């Protein structure tokens, strides 16, 4: 079954000159529209492609992957306007349409907006800026410690808002962010907790003991690479700790505490951490 707006794995069933036709499960085939098709491909080979409808309503495919698939939310730039709406740059030669009916307000060329990709009633790909109807801030399925995909959006009084798995709102707290974040940035994060009001708190570092265990190995390796001495301690600035190990100060303190109790390191106010 073909999934329009998604990545599909399809078999080559016909070649006519430079044209490559892929299976569709129907009498009509899916045309590969890449200007440079894969080298040395033959009938029977399987290709991983993105499938969509062209302007004539025909199924076509490309080996290129857009910046957002159907049902995903992304931060995309407007590159042109016409009488039907705004067109977004999304990584394919065919730009993505935001119809006027799907715009909260008039979009401007050169500016970027958060949009959700969807299929219209004719199975054509389009986008909408009216994303709030698709996202909730109330959790019913997430659990603390769960790894999730995040899309960074706006700053808030508490820190930074992020969209979780294209479906939910969550918050990263300012005092727990130790790396620069940009609107539209995609990265992995973790569910820190589900609050009593069922809203979601997030962290970028993996919570729990598993993170500490992996960090202790990193600290020991770094000590061995630096003649057994590391000029860091539980008094070091969070930004310095994050720059070296990519973790929060809290997780770092837990790790050196575990190493100290195992008598693998000593703690020195002047020299930081020393390998025993």
TrEMBL record:
Superkingdom as given in the UniProt entry: Bacteria
SMART domains registered for this protein in UniProt: S1 (SM00316)
Pfam families reported for this sequence: S1_2 (PF13509), WHD_CvfB (PF17783)
Entry similarity comment: Belongs to the CvfB family.
Protein name: Nucleic acid binding protein
S1 motif domain mapped to chain residues: 69-130, 143-205
A GO molecular-function annotation: nucleic acid binding
PANTHER family from the UniProt entry: CONSERVED VIRULENCE FACTOR B
